[in-house]
Structure formats: structure tokens, C-alpha cells
Specification:
- With 412 residues, the protein is an all-alpha fold.
- It has a domain of 265 residues: Rhopdopsin 7-helix transmembrane proteins (Up-down Bundle).
- The chain is built from 15 helices and no strands.
- Helix 7 runs parallel beside helix 15 and helix 9 runs parallel beside helix 15.
- Bound molecules: zinc ion.
- Pfam families: HlyIII (PF03006).
- One of its GO terms (molecular function) is metal ion binding.
- One of its GO terms (biological process) is adiponectin-activated signaling pathway.
- Keywords: Membrane, Metal-binding, Transmembrane, Transmembrane helix, Zinc.
């Protein structure tokens, strides 16, 4: 229906253009008449007043050849020529009349049949199943990792087609499912944790863990969404890649919150300073992620670097804790061991991601499985669960020792 209307509008536009062109032509013609008439009239004025026979008749004819006369004639008749419209509404009337009289009928018929053919063509293309393609056949905006040769999805400019592609085997299948399953697993753990009775887990602790669960679920969910729809179109791909990076920043920020909460449970000032610093760094990482060029393939090491440095900034409060409470206590009370393991998993994942190992050594052999991005995804999930285990241990330690000792009374 809309297509038909737009065909009609297009036809009117085409007609408008031609009418405007004709109108312009008519003006040029009239201008030409004026320009031609005036010099002729002045130059030949004296000769016309001479006594050459027949010149009086010529003079009369030239005097009648006046543009005002022509305009008057047009206005008086009330039936302007299509090429000289004086009122835009008249154009529409003319078009309607022209359609009635069949002048434009064949053009509109042609437009309708062309639109129907195009519609049919698109429908057939959509009905036909797409097939995976080679890296060199991808549009430039989909070319990310040239060590992955075959098995790429072509552009699928429909969200339903993108989501249906989850169930097909291609270069993104592993990336999609690793983070989809990770996201579902974290939703399950979060529901279990949040539904604990308040005698078991205080509301405050639930909120602190909620920050972590939110970071993990949003990060894995956005990553799943990005890998699913980034072949939709260039713009959609750009938006979701930014969201994907923002998700990583959220996961790192969310990871810090419970660790700092329990690690500096009785040190309010340090806790506030570190939390403020982490939130500031998290927001900065998100701002950098929103930079248009951040997603470019050439900036892969920079991306890995930004998130690695952000994650490694956790070394500062960890060393602070170890220096004030002792290294052994840091391991037993602040889950330092789990924290180090988590850091190692993230760093190894970032190295795989940045260097594109193993596909770099086996180009075209990791097109579907075991490519660097899948290994990175699996390591991110492993690190996220390791961290969950670590902060759960810290929470249990806090439960076992009870609340903070009262501040030492001033001894006089
Ligand atoms: Zn990813």
C-alpha cells in the first residue's frame, strides 16, 4: 500500500520536475524575447519610423508582442498551460486530470509493475536461505579477522534473520553460545542468591552482590546480542559493538564492588576512595568505548590494553590490603588467590584476543571452532565464576568473624 502511494508521489514528483523544467524553459524563452526585443526596438526605432513600405505593420506586430499581454491572456483564460503553472495546487489538478485522461496511465502502470516485481524479488531472496561466505566476499564493515577465512554470515538486514542464525553453524556460533549460556548461568546464580532468606544474606550484601551479578549478566548479554546482530548492518553493528565494550567495563566495575566492600569492610575511608576510583575508571572506559574508532580492527591491541589496565588496577587495593593485613591474611581472608587466578584468566584471554591465537598460526583452520575470540569468551566466563567464588568466600569470612570491632577508646 505504501509502495503504491510512494509510486504515485514519485510520479507527481517526476511530473513536478518536468513541469518546473518547462516553466523555467518558458521563463528563459520570455527573457530571451525581452532581451531580443529591447535592443532591436531601440536600434531599429529610427529605421521603423522611416518610410520603408510595410514597416508600420512590422512595428504594430512587435508592439503587440508584449509579455504582459501573454500573461494577461494566461490569467484571463483561467486555463494555464501545464508548462507554465502559476499555482502549485494547479499542478496537482493537472496531474489528476492527466491521470484521468490517461496521459500518465502507462507510466504509473509501469511503476506499479516494477514495484510488484521488486517486492516479489525481495520476498524470494528472503525465502531462500542464506549461506555462509568467505572473508573476501564480506563488505568492509564486516571484515574483522582475516585469519578466519570461511564460514562468515553475510549481511542479514533483519533482526529475526540474525536471531535465527543463532541455530546455524558459522564463524559466530561459538561466540554467541558461549556468552548466551554464560549469561543464562549467571541469571540462575543471581536468582538463587537473591532469593536467600534475609537471615542468611543481609539486604546490604544482596545489593553488593547485585552490582556484580548485574555487571556479569549485562556484559554477557550485550556480548551475546552483539555477536548475534553485528551482521545486521553497519550502523547496528557499530552500536552493538559499543554496547559490547561498555558491558566489559560494567563487568570489571561490578567485580570490584563486592571485593572492595568485604576487603575494606571496617575501613570506611579506603572503601569509599577505592570505590570512587573504580567507578570513575569504569565510566572513563565506557566513554572510550563510545569513541567511533575504538571498534576498528587496527585498534584491537588498544582495546585489550584499556580493559587489561582497568582490570589490573585492582592490584593497588590488593597490595594495600596485603601490606596492612599481611600476605597470608590476604590469601585466607580476602581471597587473594582467587583474585590472582581471575586476573590471570582475564589477561590470558586478552592476550589470545589481541594476538588472534591460534588462528594466526592456522589461518582458515579455526573458522568455526577454537578461534581466539571463543577462547577469550570461555576465559571471561571462567574468570567471572572464579571471582564469584572468591567474593562468596569473603562474604563467608565476614559472617564467621562478625561485625567490625568498635573503634579503640581513647586512653588518657
Ligand atoms: Zn565477544
Amino acid at each position: 500500500m505504501n509502495d503504491r502511494m510512494s509510486d504515485y508521489e514519485d510520479a507527481i514528483e517526476v511530473y513536478d520536475d518536468s513541469a518546473a523544467g518547462a516553466e523555467a524553459g518558458a521563463h528563459v524563452g520570455l527573457e530571451g524575447l525581452r532581451r531580443r526585443k529591447e535592443p532591436l526596438w531601440e536600434a531599429d526605432n529610427s529605421s521603423i519610423t522611416s518610410d520603408v513600405p510595410g514597416l508600420h505593420e512590422v512595428k504594430e506586430l512587435l508592439e503587440r508582442d508584449d509579455t504582459s499581454e501573454l500573461a494577461d491572456e494566461e490569467i484571463n483564460t483561467g486555463n494555464p498551460l501545464p508548462s507554465t503553472p502559476v499555482d502549485p495546487s494547479l499542478i496537482e489538478t493537472e496531474v489528476a486530470e492527466a491521470i484521468k485522461s490517461g496521459v500518465l496511465e502507462h507510466e504509473l502502470d509501469w511503476a506499479h509493475s516494477a514495484a510488484e516485481q521488486a517486492e516479489e524479488f525481495v520476498r524470494r531472496v528472503w525465502e531462500a536461505s542464506w549461506s555462509v561466505c568467505h572473508f573476501r566476499n564480506l563488505p568492509r564493515w564486516l571484515q574483522d579477522n582475516d585469519y578466519i577465512h570461511a564460514g562468515h554470515r553475510p549481511p542479514l538486514p533483519s533482526f529475526s534473520a540474525c536471531f535465527r542464525s543463532i541455530f546455524r553453524i558459522h564463524s559466530e556460533t561459538g561466540n554467541i553460545w558461549t556468552h548466551l549460556l554464560g549469561c543464562v548461568a549467571f541469571i540462575g546464580v543471581a536468582i538463587y542468591f537473591m532469593s536467600r532468606p534475609s537471615e542468611e544474606v543481609k539486604l546490604e550484601e544482596k545489593l553488593v552482590f547485585a552490582a556484580y551479578f548485574a555487571g556479569a549478566i549485562v556484559c554477557l548479554g550485550l556480548s551475546f546480542a552483539f555477536h548475534t546482530v553485528h551482521c545486521h548492518s553497519e550502523n547496528v553493528g557499530k552500536i552493538f559493538s559499543k554496547l559490547d565494550y561498555c558491558g566489559i567495563a560494567l563487568l570489571i566495575t561490578g567485580s570490584f564492588v563486592p571485593w572492595l566492600y568485604y576487603g575494606f569492610y571496617c575501613h570506611f575511608q579506603s572503601k569509599v576512595i577505592y570505590l570512587s576510583a573504580v567507578i570513575t575508571l569504569g565510566i572513563s572506559a565506557m566513554v572510550v568505548s563510545l569513541w567511533d574508532r575504538f571498534a576498528e580492527p587496527s585498534l584491537r591491541p588498544l582495546r585489550a590494553g584499556v580493559f587489561a589496565v582497568f582490570g589490573l588496577s585492582g592490584v593497588v587495593p590488593a597490595v594495600h590490603y596485603a601490606l596492612t593485613e599481611g600476605w597470608l591474611n590476604a590469601v585466607t581472608q580476602a581471597s587473594l588467590g582467587w583474585l590472582v587466578l581471575m586476573g590471570c584468566l582475564y589477561i590470558i584471554g586478552a592476550i589470545f584476543y589481541a594476538l588472534r591465537v591460534p588462528e594466526r598460526f592456522f589461518p582458515g583452520k579455526c573458522d568455526i571452532w577454537f578461534q581466539s575470540h571463543q577462547i577469550f569468551h570461555v576465559l571471561v566466563i571462567a574468570a567471572a565464576f572464579v571471582h564469584y567464588h572468591g567474593i562468596t568466600e569473603m562474604a563467608m569470612y565476614r559472617m564467621s568473624v562478625g561485625e567490625c570491632p568498635p573503634p579503640q577508646e581513647l586512653v588518657l
